[in-house]
């Protein structure tokens, strides 16, 4: 099909969508449809639009759009839409082709604002400049991959800048004649395009002047068959320069390169258009640095897109390129590498033995070294193993002796939880069952209600491989279940891998029974004491109230005996009033000693302060009370405990210390409250007192136990006594198992 349009590769890069349309009559329809539906929708409204215009669809010669886009995006952070167009430069002299191309570009980009146009190679630059106002009106232009000779003496156009390279075909010819000094014929094969004609005309005068002894033959615009026919009679002392690269829109690559391969079989052949030529028999050529051209072009384009004016950015010339050579052809035509210019790039070099088989050589050497080390290691390991086995046997023997004589029940399991060892005491505890030491038959002796919890704890520990402890009931040989505290730790193998658990269990039944009995007795003692005090308080109250009633009757009787003299009557009444006051005061004091109403209504601080004041007046002793950061309200059990401890400690100080001053302090601390009762009196021997503790000390200690507090006593003969009571206020602190210790000063 005749190509009536341009070969298009349009990318909506923000949406990452790619579409290709081949030349033909359907091109216009497809371009129009996808342009107005896909591309405009994918592009962001605030994105910059960049059009890249290539002269030829030859990525090996001018770089791929992806390489340019990657280099460009690495220099700008804004969103950019990339659009790529390929021209068929050799058809630009065709007016119909140019007209169709212009119409397609206008239709595609007429509604878009192009922020930058980048062109590759001189034909695309000529086209862009010629039709700039019609297609890219107002858009700056940045060019790359253009020979510096093209712009020599050329005044730069407004809004245009870019990068050039020295296209030195003459340097390739000079090197070829150096490598083949006997050559007498130079054949140049190229297309009949304006570009190839330009370079050919630029090359011919200098070559004819400098090499009059070498005949130049130009084969321009011939078909493959015509080329082979014209080359057939040429002598062996001929050098060929092949400047044809396949045009993807019309040529088949295999046909172009097949011709090159046939030519390279007979004559030394050099390239002038594409590095792909080297893969099909080309010896070499001087090519500009394509990556550097693309990088500099992208850098200049990014600067323009970021706001710099093209007129303020000078054209950058990267200079002459490097010589690229095919190693196989160098060997074939006996060209030494030392003859190549410095910096040459040699391609298709076969790898050396080390490069080709390096991994196999390394593996072989590693295997040999490993075998030697393995043999040495086995010998060393054998000696160590014998020594370790002897130590292990001795260690196992010591372990068995220790495990069988310890009072604990020792057991071991493997990494799956299977019991592998039970000591003699464990077997004797549950009975001499011959199967009890193997597998999971041991679980039959666990209380049915505890089996699930025991197994769950064991299996969880096997997963986490961490130490654990648990309590459960184990059936003794007489059928009685006993409470056991079992503590287990992980075991490891010689390679530090998990081997299972080793545990020891002790019978805690007696301790549990004793603890329960002690808690029960302590609670009953406190409860009975409170009941007794309440009863006494009620009895005293009722008795004294009756006495008061009797006194009231006496007062009434005295009032009736009005016959007595006023002085006598007044004296009797005064006496009766005094008796009433004494009885009332006594009742008040007894009631506060038994149960303070202030404790319920005003809190523990007010209750202890009132107790101190009343006791001080009653016993004529100075009691100094202070409080610091004490909570206004406390739980009832804590308030009562602190009040009773303070009451008992103050009474003991007055009774036994023979002091005239007692210090009482209550203070709040972090998550706890502290009570201190201190005197500087006679003191006592704490160790002797522990042997026969009084009821008061026992009562204080038991009260502290009920609120999970601790009581400490510091005393020495002649050094006074200090009692410290500390009660935790937090739930965790109150629910934890606190140690209630009596510290010795």
Give the low-confidence spans.
Answer: 1-44, 732-745
Provide the CATH top-level class of the largest domain. Alpha Beta
Principal-axis shape equals elongated
The helix tally amounts to 23
CATH fold-type name of the largest domain: Rossmann fold
Largest sheet: 8 strands, mixed
Mean pLDDT: 81
SS-based class: alpha/beta
Explain briefly what this protein structure is.
By secondary structure, the protein is α/β, with parallel strands linked by helices.
Defining key terms:
25 strands; 47% helix; Beta-Lactamase; 745 residues; disordered N terminus; five-stranded antiparallel sheet
Structural description of this entry:
With 745 residues, the protein is α/β, with parallel strands linked by helices. The chain folds into 5 domains: 159 residues, Rossmann fold; 153 residues, Response regulator (Rossmann fold, 3-Layer(aba) Sandwich), CATH 3.40.50.2300; 80 residues, PAS domain (Beta-Lactamase, 2-Layer Sandwich); 88 residues; 150 residues, Histidine kinase-like ATPase, C-terminal domain (Heat Shock Protein 90, 2-Layer Sandwich), CATH 3.30.565. 47% of the residues lie in helices and 21% in strands. The strands form 5 sheets. An 8-stranded mixed β-sheet has the order 2-1-4-3-5-6-7-13, with helices on both faces. Strand 16 and strand 17 form a beta hairpin. The protein is elongated and about 170 Å long.
């Amino acid at each position: 099909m005749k190509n009536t349009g341009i070969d298009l590769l349009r990318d909506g890069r923000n949406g990452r969508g790619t579409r290709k349309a081949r030349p033909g009559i359907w091109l216009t329809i497809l371009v129009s449809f996808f342009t107005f539906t896909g591309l405009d929708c994918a592009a962001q409204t605030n994105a910059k639009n960049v059009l890249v215009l290539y002269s030829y669809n030859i990525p090996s010669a001018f770089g791929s759009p992806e390489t340019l886009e990657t280099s460009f995006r690495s220099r700008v952070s804004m969103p950019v839409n990339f659009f790529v167009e390929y021209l068929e430069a050799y058809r630009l002299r065709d007016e119909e082709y140019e007209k169709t191309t212009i119409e397609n570009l206008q239709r595609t980009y007429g509604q878009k604002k192009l922020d930058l146009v980048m062109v590759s190679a001189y034909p695309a630059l000529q086209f862009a400049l010629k039709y700039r106002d019609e297609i890219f009106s107002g858009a700056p232009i940045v060019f790359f991959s253009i020979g510096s000779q093209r712009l020599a003496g050329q005044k730069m156009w407004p809004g245009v800048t870019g990068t050039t390279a020295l296209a030195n075909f003459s340097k390739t010819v000079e090197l070829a004649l150096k490598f083949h000094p006997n050559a007498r014929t130079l054949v140049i094969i190229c297309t009949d395009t304006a570009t190839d004609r330009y370079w050919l005309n630029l090359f011919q005068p200098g070559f004819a002047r400098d090499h009059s002894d070498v005949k130049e033959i130009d084969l321009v615009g011939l078909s493959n068959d015509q080329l082979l026919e014209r080359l057939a009679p040429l002598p062996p002392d001929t050098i060929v320069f092949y400047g044809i690269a396949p045009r993807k829109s019309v040529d088949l690559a295999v046909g172009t390169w097949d011709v090159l391969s046939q030519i390279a079989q007979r004559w030394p052949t050099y390239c002038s258009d594409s590095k792909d030529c080297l893969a099909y028999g080309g010896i070499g050529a001087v090519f500009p640095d394509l990556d550097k051209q693309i990088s500099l072009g992208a850098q200049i384009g990014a600067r323009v897109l970021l706001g710099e004016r093209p007129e303020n950015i000078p054209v950058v010339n990267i200079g002459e390129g490097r010589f690229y050579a095919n190693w196989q052809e160098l060997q074939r035509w006996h060209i030494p590498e030392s003859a190549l210019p410095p910096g040459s790039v040699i391609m298709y070099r076969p790898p050396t033995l080390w490069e080709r088989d390096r991994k196999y050589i390394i593996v072989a050497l590693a295997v040999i070294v490993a075998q030697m080390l393995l043999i040495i290691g086995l010998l060393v390991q054998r000696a160590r193993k014998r020594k370790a086995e002897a130590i292990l046997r001795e260690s196992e023997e010591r372990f068995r002796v220790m495990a069988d004589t310890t009072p604990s029940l020792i057991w071991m399991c493997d990494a799956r939880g299977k019991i592998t060892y039970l000591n003699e005491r464990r077997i004797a505890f549950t009975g001499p069952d011959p199967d009890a030491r193997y597998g999971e038959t041991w679980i039959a002796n666990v209380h049915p209600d505890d089996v699930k919890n025991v197994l769950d704890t064991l299996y969880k520990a096997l997963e986490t491989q961490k130490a654990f402890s648990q309590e459960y009931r184990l059936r003794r040989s007489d059928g009685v279940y006993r409470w056991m505290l079992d503590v287990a730790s992980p075991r490891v193998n010689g390679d530090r891998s998990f081997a299972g658990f080793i545990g020891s269990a002790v019978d805690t039944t007696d301790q549990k029974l004793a603890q329960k009995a002690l808690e029960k007795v302590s609670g009953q003692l406190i409860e009975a004491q409170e009941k007794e005090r309440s009863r006494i308080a009620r009895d005293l109250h009722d008795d004294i109230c009756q006495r008061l009633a009797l006194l009231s009757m006496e007062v009434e009787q005295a009032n009736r005996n009005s016959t007595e003299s006023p002085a006598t009557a007044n004296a009797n009444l005064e006496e009766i009033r005094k008796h009433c006051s004494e009885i009332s005061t006594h009742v008040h004091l007894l009631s506060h000693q038994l149960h303070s109403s202030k404790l319920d209504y005003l809190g523990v601080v007010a209750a202890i302060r009132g107790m101190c004041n009343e006791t001080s007046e009653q016993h004529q002793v100075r009691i100094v009370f202070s409080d610091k950061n004490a909570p206004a309200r406390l739980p009832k059990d804590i308030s009562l405990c602190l009040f009773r401890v303070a009451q008992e400690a103050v009474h003991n100080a007055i009774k036994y210390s023979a002091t005239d001053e007692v210090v009482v302090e209550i203070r709040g601390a972090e998550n706890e409250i502290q009570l201190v009762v201190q005197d500087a009196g006679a003191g006592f021997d704490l160790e002797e007192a522990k042997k026969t503790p009084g009821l008061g000390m026992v009562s204080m200690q038991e009260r502290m136990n009920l609120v999970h507090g601790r009581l400490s006593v510091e005393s020495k003969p002649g050094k006074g006594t200090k009692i410290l009571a500390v009660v935790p206020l937090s739930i965790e602190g109150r629910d934890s198992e606190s140690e209630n210790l009596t510290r010795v000063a």
